[in-house]
Amino acid sequence: MSAVVSPIREPLVTGGKTYHQITEDICSPTERTPSAAWVLAFIVAVTGLALFVFGVAWTIWQGIGTWDLNRTIGWSWDITNFVWWVGIGHAGTLISAILLLFRQRWRTGVNRAAEAMTIFAVICAGQFPLIHMGRIWLAFFIFPYPNTRGPLWVNFNSPLLWDVFAISTYFTVSLLFWYTGLVPDFATVRDRAKGIRRKLYNFLSFGWTGSAKHWQRWEALSLVLAGLATPLVLSVHTIVSFDFATSVIPGWHTTIFPPYFVAGAIFSGFAMVQTLMIMTRKILKLEDYITLEHIESMNKVILATGTIVGVAYLTELFIAWYSGYIYEQFAFYNRVLGPYYWSYIGMMSCNVLSPQIFWWKSLRRNVFVTFVMSIFVNIGMWFERFVIIATTLARDYLPSSWSYYVPTWVEIIIFIGSLGLFFTLYLIFVRVAPVVAVAEVKSILKAGGDQYIGPNANKTHHGSKEAAH
Amino acid sequence: MSNQKKDILYGLYNDEEYLLKAVDHANAEGLEITEVFTPFPVHGLDPKLGFAESRLHITGFVYGMLGTLTAFLFMTWVFTRDWPIIFGGKPYFSAPAFIPITFELTVLFAAVGMVVTFYIICGLGPGVTIPTLDDRITDDKFCIAFDVTNAEESLTDKLKGFFSQTGAEEVNTKNI
């Protein structure tokens, strides 16, 4: 059958695809020899990964003294990068879970890749607290395991420990959710493959057959996992914001942090999804599945969350002034006009001002503009975390210990290298797994009730069709 | 599940609409469908096949409660019995501070428990190989299968008649 194009509703999949064409379009990139563009991108990404490995090895070997942190500024690029990556890692689960609960069917085109992105972003994020510990070989101390020191337990009242639980739960649940969605699609790839590839995909597909009972359970499982992941995704960045909000540092100790961090996370996550999707749909020729409609919808989310973040910035300034508390007032004065004023400008212009162009429909639907904007947003959100962390620490209660912080080459290559780690994982994923959820896209191919009868249906089922009206 | 091979008579349909009509037809004629295979979840199929609602979400609730209790009781035990320490002048039993970890473990237990249960009850998992009837079932064909092991000729003929009546694209027999 082929889908009829509804005159009223915009189709979720364009191009009048049949089920078989969907399989063909989405699975074939995993079967072809990689294109030159992919090979080039992979070389660049692996080079980045090598930088990361070198930077991390150097840090572990020499100690985190190589980062030029000082007594005043104990957190800088490392925690900035951590929060930035965790924030990016929010969009995938948001798209797959919250949009599933809201019955936003357009999500099927992008949820697979967005979830993959989430998992890889969380992997990148997890590296930073680990290497920040200094003695990474003692990293297992963060888990409450029975030990010979008493046993001496971890501090369950500490937001840093909450972070350990939040991030590891988030990673595990996202991974399970993503993989369970992938199982039927691996079966599709398996059934198209021969020889060793068939064996490999048979292993990955867990023996999936497409039995109706299995599908029923699979849907029940997806729905409950979505229900669990929805509060989870909101909790993760809330808890990350507690790292700051539960401290007593002026500029950090604010109740606005949780909602403001969550909005910022969704904002940066969607921007990264846009960056990746625009490249993926172009290189893998998936424009019929990841349509302009998707790009526009995500741009609306970027506009909304960017504006929420903007309101939060202004609220912070207002409340600092209104509080009448001079330390809080100074923290914000320093944030805007202090030695790091340039990062505040970067944050404000990239996060608040530039997304406002998405009020125009023609710009929301412009792929090139969206791509450039998505990069801007990611830069802006990195600045936001830098502003919150570095500027606040640089000017503490004691003017004699005020300091200014400049990253060393080690920190710079670790950050650039983490992008290499991320893109290496993403590029491998694109080669191995279907980047669009094949089964789910098939289930939304028919967008309206009138499309539910195939071309030959009038001959055999005419009566029932009439009755249905 | 028996390890003996079965003779399966199956028909492939091109669209889920035909499949749903065929299932109705089979129900009306009192034919016992052994299994239905589809490339994606077809809505409205479960009640026709007489499937009860999945109870997976109940297991999810149980696992979740287990996580809640594990986290909350463990932290309470550590801070009030095993090694009480005062943090920031707060009471030993500072329940609000236990909430984030309690929540995370609730979600973790529920999700991991449900996923593991799902794979176990479906008989799926790493390294499992289940012979399939046709490679196109995971692509674009919708399949109704009947177990015709040791079946009489008349039943087989009746089933074949059913397939041709309901517009099956292909009808085959396979021993799996």
UniProtKB/TrEMBL annotation, chain A:
Record InterPro entries: NrfD-like
Main location: membrane
Topology versus the membrane: Multi-pass membrane protein
Subcellular location per the Swiss-Prot or TrEMBL entry: Cell membrane
Domain of life: Bacteria
Keywords: Cell membrane, Membrane, Transmembrane, Transmembrane helix
Membrane-spanning intervals of the chain: 38-62, 82-102, 114-140, 160-182, 220-240, 260-280, 301-321, 341-360, 367-388, 408-429
GO cellular component: plasma membrane
Keyword Membrane: yes
Family: Belongs to the NrfD family.
Name used for this protein in its record: Hydrogenase
The species this protein was found in: Phaeodactylibacter xiamenensis
Taxonomic classification: Bacteria, Pseudomonadati, Bacteroidota, Saprospiria, Saprospirales
UniProtKB/TrEMBL annotation, chain B:
Keywords: Membrane, Transmembrane, Transmembrane helix
Domain of life: Bacteria
Pfam families the record matches: ActD
Transmembrane segments: 58-79, 99-121
Organism encoding this protein: Phaeodactylibacter xiamenensis
Protein name per UniProt: Quinol:cytochrome C oxidoreductase
UniProt-listed InterPro entries: ActD
Keyword Ribosomal protein: no
